[in-house]
């Protein structure tokens, strides 16, 4: 493929796995134990993790299979384009790209929130806060431009650090685990009927499971390493998520856990001393910086692939001559993110920032559903003879993944679904323009060719 010749294959199995795990384990994990305890009881929380974990693994299997079969940069965009055509491919790219660069802003603001606990002016002064977040954005954009291997090594180191941090927490919480904190499993008002409410929080923890397929064009031995990194990455994240939450519920009284603003820090402070709080804050900042590296990488790759095929402007497909990275896709995404950061730190635009952030929250789930559907559709295109038994056998896992994605969309709530649909509609005029522009360019090229042939 064209972009595989242009983009440097600098990602091995370790970095690809770190990309998946690191992109999944973002800022939310530090708050999830408390957020979930506010909504549901221990039994509902555990079941929510089990359901979302199984559903996400079904989706990950579709990504792993398609990524190994079609190892081209762009992942979910490429799969849906092959299965359903350019328009569906564009919609996937549009939703994923917008959700990603807007999500990058939320991640960077989370860094500022934690940093503000250590350096108050970052939180209290809008100018300082804006300069700080802008600096984070452009430093890590620059790192991504300077090479995928450099960015990958940084994220790998941070992901390993993050896993070690959580293992320490799990060990401390396990030593002080009290089974009584988990009873009753289904307390009044927070019983089994709150599973879907808890799942609406846990499902977002699995966003990023597709990361290896998005950067497929830069992965060495992609036919094997995309599948391996996807399965290993989501397995690590799933086990860590469940262990962190179960041991957090056992280590702290449920009433205190629900009221905690920093549950992991509070639990470690209770058993290791109050001085640990600042260390955990620094560790959280380092962990989220790793997420920033990975998501900037993924955001640019989906836009690059769409630019290569002409469904996004060709500027997105420009590759740096020295570093062999999609530098224009990185720059464009970061410029938009910087504008949104400015809106966040401008008092009059706070409502607008909250609106567009909410608009992005549903972006990934339709992309996941279409990837599961794409696997079934591409099976039909590849397998010449299909009978009912073969269809059920081949389509069983992606069908379950599709059903799970649909359930997750339903659980996100009517308002969020509406905003996601509005974001999808907003992309259609953009696609129509690009489609007409591409057609006119092709017609012009054909006319010139006819003129030259005639002469």
TrEMBL record:
Subcellular compartments: Cell membrane
Organism annotation: Alicyclobacillus fastidiosus
The keyword DNA-binding is assigned to this record: no
Name under which the protein is recorded: Amino acid permease
PANTHER family documented for this protein: AMINO ACID TRANSPORTER-RELATED (PTHR42770), ARGININE_AGMATINE ANTIPORTER (PTHR42770:SF18)
Keywords: Cell membrane, Membrane, Transmembrane, Transmembrane helix
Pfam family, one: AA_permease_2
Membrane topology: Multi-pass membrane protein
Main location: membrane
Classification via InterPro entries: AA/rel_permease1, APC_superfamily
Chain ranges passing through the membrane: 12-32, 44-64, 94-115, 127-146, 158-177, 197-219, 231-251, 271-297, 327-345, 351-370, 391-410, 416-434
């Amino acid at each position: 493929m064209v972009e595989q010749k242009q983009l440097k294959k600098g990602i091995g199995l370790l970095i690809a796995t770190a990309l998946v795990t690191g992109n999944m384990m973002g800022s939310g994990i530090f708050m999830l134990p408390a957020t979930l305890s506010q909504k549901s009881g221990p039994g509902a929380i555990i079941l929510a993790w089990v359901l979302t974990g199984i559903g996400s693994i079904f989706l990950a299997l579709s990504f792993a299979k398609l990524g190994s079969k079609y190892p081209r940069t762009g992942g979910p965009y490429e799969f849906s384009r092959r299965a359903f055509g350019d328009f569906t491919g564009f919609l996937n790219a549009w939703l994923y790209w917008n959700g990603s660069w807007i999500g990058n802003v939320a991640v960077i603001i989370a860094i500022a929130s934690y940093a503000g606990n250590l350096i108050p002016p970052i939180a209290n002064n809008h100018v300082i806060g804006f300069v700080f977040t802008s600096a984070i954005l452009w430093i890590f954009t620059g790192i991504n431009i300077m090479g995928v291997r450099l960015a990958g090594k940084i994220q790998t180191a941070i992901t390993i650090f993050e896993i070690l941090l959580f293992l320490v927490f799990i060990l401390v919480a396990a030593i002080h685990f009290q089974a009584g904190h988990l009873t009753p499993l289904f307390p009044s008002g927070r019983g089994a009927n709150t599973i879907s409410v808890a799942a609406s929080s846990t499902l977002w923890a699995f966003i990023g499971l597709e990361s290896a397929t998005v950067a497929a064009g830069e992965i060495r031995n992609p036919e094997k390493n995309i599948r391996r990194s996807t399965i290993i990455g989501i397995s690590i994240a799933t086990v860590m998520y469940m262990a962190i939450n179960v041991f957090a519920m056992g280590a702290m009284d449920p009433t205190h856990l629900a009221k905690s603003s920093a549950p992991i820090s509070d639990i470690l402070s209770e058993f290791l001393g109050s001085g640990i709080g600042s260390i955990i804050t620094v560790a959280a900042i380092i962990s989220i910086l790793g997420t920033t590296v990975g998501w900037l990488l993924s955001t640019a790759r989906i836009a690059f692939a769409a630019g290569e095929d002409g469904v996004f402007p060709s500027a997105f497909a420009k590759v740096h001559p020295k570093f062999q990275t999609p530098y224009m896709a990185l720059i464009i995404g970061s410029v938009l993110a910087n504008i949104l950061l400015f809106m966040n730190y401008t008092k009059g635009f706070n409502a607008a920032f909250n609106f567009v952030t909410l608009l992005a929250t549903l972006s990934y789930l339709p992309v996941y559903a279409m990837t599961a559907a794409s696997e079934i559709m591409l099976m039909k295109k590849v397998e010449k003879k299909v009978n009912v038994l073969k269809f059920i056998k081949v389509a069983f896992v992606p069908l379950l993944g599709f059903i799970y994605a649909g359930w997750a969309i339903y659980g996100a709530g009517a308002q969020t679904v509406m905003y996601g649909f509005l974001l999808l509609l907003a992309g259609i005029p953009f696609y129509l323009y690009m489609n007409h522009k591409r057609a006119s360019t092709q017609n012009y090229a054909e006319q010139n060719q006819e003129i030259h042939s005639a002469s």
